Amino acid sequence: MNIVSAFAVSLSLAADAMAVAVCCGLKSRRNYRKTAVITAALFGFFQMFMSVLGWSIGKVGVRLISGQEGIAAFIILLLLGIKMMMESRKEPTSPLAVITGRELLLFAVATSMDALALGTVLPVAVHADTPLSLTEAVLLIGAVTFLLSYGGFRFGHRFRSIQPRWAVFAGGCVLILLGGKILFWG
After folding, report:
1. What range does the domain containing 170 cover?
2. How far is Cα 68 from Cα 57, in angstroms, rounded to an integer?
């Protein structure tokens, strides 16, 4: 496993979750410490789960793209990066002042959709050749998402006047750069 690529993928995937966590922190009024941990744990878990689910889906289609994995990874990462950059230009929707468990679950699923798509090419993106290295990459994705989401929630709660759009834009840029690296250097 290439740790630099795995870390870059982790940061990219965590950007959406962190941006939403900042929004949750901006609006959270009660039990913000407990809500911060729950938010971060849900976001981290769903990033890991969706990455594995995407990888499982990708294994089925591997025969279709055999030998073209780099191009497929580049296209997927490019499209996800562009999507994230376009989303960063929109006005973020804010969660309600009292964040319910159902809302957090929906946020976790929504922010992990990129992980589902990226999971289809995850072994190529992070050079995970064995199940152990893939497991390490997925755990890194979950840990980075947890830490950034927790920090984002706390940041949002403390600084309620800051806009979180930069995280989504930066995540999109990183995905596009990673896609280019895979396409040109493997």
Report:
1. 3-185
2. 17
Single pTM value for the model:
0.72
Three-state DSSP string of the chain: CCHHHHHHHHHHHHHHHHHHHHHHHHHCCCCHHHHHHHHHHHHHHHHHHHHHHHHHHHHHHHHHHCCCHHHHHHHHHHHHHHHHHHHHHCCCCCCCCCCCHHHHHHHHHHHCHHHHHHHCCHHHHHCCCCHHHHHHHHHHHHHHHHHHHHHHHHHHHHCCCCCCHHHHHHHHHHHHHHHHHHHHHC
Number of domains in the chain: 1
Q: Which amino acid is at 122?
A: L
The pLDDT value recorded for residue 99 is 67
- Evaluate if residue 54 carries a pLDDT over 50: yes
